[in-house]
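Entry:
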Amino acid sequence: MATLQEVAQIALSLPEVTESESRGTRTWSVGGKTFAWERPYSKADLKRFDDETPPNEPIVAVRVDDLVEKEAVLAAGTKGVFTIPHFDGYAAVLIELRTVTKRAMKDALVDGWLACAPRHLAKPVRGEALARPRRPDRRLLGEPEERGHSPSF
């Protein structure tokens, strides 16, 4: 289990992260790009769950590098990591804080930060992250990046 306070502490421990508020919820950005944000369900989100019980709030959305990475993250089956139809075609996953482990939350935040950070900031952190298993960078393989549209937050 992770808390919003722990999310904030982890995010703010990364280089040059700023915390701000948007529409009454917290967001974390680096280099002018938001990599994580508190994401309450909208009425439309709740309707899409129909009879299914939605994951418990609080929920945090975290950017991933591209849609291929999103599919890999979801396929890994990490407890508490999911998506909703509103995020189809967008490079981000949702995380149920009451379910996710603190380690998985930290890994997701670092990966989200790496997806958005300017290269000069990301290089030293990426070196540390390489100790963890990751899928190959698509750009290094000569494959095109797949970036989705940006949904409203």
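Helices lie at 4-13, 43-49, 67-75, 102-116, 119-129.
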